[in-house]
Amino acid sequence: MSISLTRYLVEEQRDKGHIPPELRLLLEVVARACKSISHAVNKGALGGVLGSAHTENIQGEVQKKLDIIANDVLIEANEWGGHLAAMASEEMDDIYAVPNRYPQGEYLLLFDPLDGSSNIDVNVSIGTIFSVLKKNSAYPTVSKEDFLQKGSEQVAAGYCVYGPQTTLVLTVGDGVAMFTLDREQGSFVLTQDHVQIPVDTKEFAINMSNMRHWDAPVKRYIDECLLGKEGPRAKDFNMRWIASMVADVHRILTRGGVFMYPWDKREPNKPGKLRLMYEANPMSWIVEQAGGASTNGKTRIMDIQPKELHERVSVILGSKNEVDRVTQYHTHA
Ligand code: P6P
Fold first, then answer.
1. Domain count, the chain
2. How far does the centroid of ligand 1 lie from the alpha carbon of residue 88, in Å?
């Protein structure tokens, strides 16, 4: 008997009391939006959705057509439901307050609507990452400051990877569950519950072309991996880099590994490339809920107090013993 996402969320709400009805309904809407995005992604060239939109986002990155389509799908699916006060997106400079014509809710939804978009045109897995916070202030209006909460304040986090399968991965604080899209039924079906990341691994994910720019602790860790059996680790390592965080993290959730996008000397005043609020925080909660760890090399990512909505962070996440080792190289250099 297969368990649908709806049934999983009803049981998390009704039987376990982990989430209130409003949050359950919000997550169902987000999942439906991911289904629509998956449909658009799967059309590819046939849907005229590939290529550049010839616009830039706040990150100064050229937006792909599908970046904007995915963003619009999430906004339009979520703005009328009455669950949200506002949304924030990698693709929008400022927050998007729910229009006055709709009821205001108590939740804040943050997302990277289509992460890994450099892979869209070459048919490599991409994904949507989302994070849910509660609007704590009692003021009727909502501001950017309402979003600036630590990752430890999240009430739900997830991603949807658009690959050979479309798989939604979710945590509401009761472990990590994976749901695969059954295209015939049009529904997400539970395919793995209580996901656990092996604490040890022989696989690392990093963009090796940046090696000459790395800080010493990162260089030490990767050099030791490359020395393999002959080196201090006394085992050979494998390397993967999909350049799509969602796909790399999904592999790590499935078979272990360590993912690293560390600070480097190319832009020394930037703490890293990845964004804290809607990439690192949701992925960190998922990884920790699956028994893994996630730091910026020195600090638990979910303990970082955000100062800006689009701030970046250095990310080391995955198999606990490897993340602990990389962190130790930074803190006990
Ligand atoms: P690079 C995608 O653009 C992204 O934000 C992450 O999904 C991915 O891990 C990283 O950037 C890839 O960066 O520098 O290797 O292209």
1. 2
2. 20
